[in-house]
Amino acid sequence: MTLLRQPANWWRENRLPLLASITAMFILLFTIGGAVGVANAATKPAAADDGVKGQTFTIATDTTWAPFEFERDGELRGIDIDLIKAVAKDQGFDVEIDVLGFDGALAAVTAGQADAVMAGMSITKERQKTFDFSNPYFDSGIQMAVASNDTSINGYEDLEGKSVSAKTGTEGFAFAEKLGKEYGFTVTGFQDASDAYSDVTSGNSAAVFDDYPILAYGIATGNVALKTVTDQEKASSYGMAVKKGDNEALRKAFNTGLKNLIEDGTYQSILDDYLGDNAPDATGIGGGKAVLGNSTLEPGKPGDLPKNPAFATDTPQTNGSFTIATDTTFAPFIYQVGGKNIGIDMDLLRAIAANQGFSVEIKTLGFDAALQAVTAGQADGVIAGMSITDERKQVFDFSDPYYESGVQMAVSKDSDITSYEDLKGKNVAVKTGTVGYDFAQQLSEEIGFTINAFQDSADMYNDVAVGNSAATFEDAPVLQFGIASGSVPLKIVTDAEPGSNYGFAVAKGANTELLKMFNDGLQNAKDTGAYQQIIDRYLAIDDTAAVDNSFWTLVKTSIGPLSQGLVLTLLATALAIVFAMILGIVFGILKLSTNPFLRILAGAYVNIFRGTPVLVQAFFFYFGVPAVTGQPLDALTAGVITLSLNAGAYITEIVRGGVQSVDPGQMEASRSLGLGWGASMRRVVMPQAFKIMTPNLINQFIITLKDTSLLSVLGFAELTYQGRIVIASTFRSFEIWIIVGAMYFVVIWLLTVLSNWVDRKFNK
Amino acid sequence: MTNSEPTYTRPVTTTSGDPIEVRDLHKSFGKNHVLTGIDLTVANGEVVAVIGPSGSGKSTLLRCLNRLEEVTSGEVLIVGENIAVAKGKKLDAVRQRVGMVFQHFNLFPHMTALENVTLAPIELRMLSRAEARKRGVELLTRVGLADKVDARPASLSGGQKQRVAIARALAMSPEIMLFDEATSALDPEMVGEVLQVIRDLAASGMTMVLVTHEMGFAREVADRVVFMADGNVVESGAPSDIFDNPQEARTQDFLSKVL
Known about the structure:
The complex is a heterodimer. By secondary structure, chain A is α/β, with parallel strands linked by helices. Chain A is built from 26 helices and 27 strands.
């Protein structure tokens, strides 16, 4: 469905280690005023491009993400970097590039620490709530790749029961999750693209989903041992983003600069430089939107056509004049404002006429009369939201379809209904005689709901809004226009059913020249983005206002995944502590052994695991070991191994110290009674040693619990990982990190209370 | 050995030979030669007091008698087993037949008095839990601590602690008791109560070796007194002989200082 062509998306995020997130949290903390007010910023266009001349802007970008940003010949290069520098030069401003990682870059811009993000950032509806985007400068899509020596995976259906990887918060991640439900596989998220790739080459995951230029570039340069096996999906475009309502001058300057660079070929040469033969045609990027500059159509002002260099609207009108009949009112395709005919049909027709060099005279006759006028030869053509049907084809010649319509379901704004199945046993409101009515009737037999028929659209919508009916069915564009214009207080929860196509029609066998010009002009409008601009003008739904930004709503929606994360955190902690205690006691006693070999063994163990960072150990066990053994370890296993060995090293020293601090006379007394060494340790020495060790052990347990957060980099879905996932979809890092922090704090506080109680109870 | 019912003394299983026979015992700590060829035999039921100046090696000798110190060379035959070389379970079996009382008590602080006493019999399955408790209470009563059965060591006085330690050592019904300066760490007013317990024990016919500074007590309870100096036995004999008529100059010198 064109109208919803921007799928709901997750934030791409987290290629820097945890530190970046923490830094981001502090940035937000210290700029709380700016950070919290993100959502409400106004979007009034600022003055003009000349506001940027001579200024310096800080552009935040990702760490290595070839070919968009990476080190080349010792300096930071890439398509993003070269483009923003070229734009800056063209528009007479300076840029300072700040490499912060994807997350950090987004956080820096929302916190006002940087002016814009330029980081291969897809333009999505989610992100448009927080950012204003420039025109698209690159078209991407998601592709699936598998290990280069893997011949078993050739399509999504081969993934059943397997696990795939993706970079957390990317569209690849969101796409894979959606696909996983359909094909039955699980998705593991990684902070870093290279980790997601490694997870496939090490055999932990069967496939990886990522943006195609990144995959293609990595494979082409031989840096990753992967191969792509599917076509691109989920097309999206990259844009430069500024904080919503801020830096409008910079955004406009970027659009103008991009347009200039495309026209003079500079941008094409940048693309060619990095992508060679695979470089896209710069003029076609974003369906031609990249070359639009800042020209837009203002809603409700008919006839203002986009000044699009690729879509000429100043063609001399030498190809004749035509009379076109239409309906009186069929919003959003044709209706009147201030005595002028506007609507999708009207704008499109005028744009095509201007482009193809003919002039039109509009006759608003009503639908039936319009059709008759054409058959009677009183008009040359008809455009009136007219479906292309086999019956009509007997009488008319149709153009290519210019709009795909279909029935769509809408529900009240606070409704939980998300699918047809949810309607079972409920009421559904429809308008008699419409396709929506027919569709609802068909569906009711399948699902089992009751139909409330209405004569009037307003009554029908009201019945749903007040809750008598659970949903309504209506033509998609009609619904969308109603919602977009604010007159229908509902929301859309399903995709439109494939249905009828609207076409422009002429009398059969007549006006073939006109039909050809319409088709050519339509194709041209679609290619250049002019078509999309017209559609957006009437149907783009701005759902920013519908977002409930309150803290408690955030808590309510995030507590589910965060609690799941907490459960896994506690599971990993419990397992790690049990194994670490066993390791610690065994090696602690070995350290006290009289056998020098055993002492050295225990000493080596302690030194190795105390002397290297936990994160390195986690990577080693998760990525390193399977790469050698060929035996993949799941994240929980690898994580528990890591934390057990790490904490075990510290507990070894705690045990050694604890045992050594027990009076040797205790052992002597026990041995003199005839108890063996083992029994003496168990009954006499260890109980006393544990009393001494308790505070240190509690410390170590708490450290281990907190160290589980590091396992998020392995895609282990513990509390910190879940926090990042929630932030990826809400961008509420300040609040979420506070919630996550509070959850850790409360759990650790409870554990401390429990430990102290146990200590008092058993170590009297 | 059988212990079907709690008894105060274990039935003697070795009828032939002496319970303690030490032959040419040498002990070095590094270059420090602490014991230089000790020969000592203790007969069944005999009470031997070992006296001598500090650093003479008397405590080391005592600790060698249940292998709390490794023996450098020589033989230490305890109830017929040479524990200088015995290992593992064999060594533990011998130790079960030898009770030891330490200068600093070495009670287990995380257990009550009764638990201290019953630990070994229960852990080594000599007695059932109930029998061990019964016998433990009996032993504590015998050392005058019937009211301290459930007390933890921290709440006991030094003399009480040492009496618990003696009861603990007796719990395994040993044939031999070793006392390593059992009263040295006690306040003077508590010495008497501990000596009384040891005195009773001696009267019951227990084979005992006491390392002590209590000369009067040694004279009273010992069948034989051994005087040690510089890692060797200088002189040994009946208490009256040693205390009243010492033959060696070292002995005379020592006694003149302590008596």
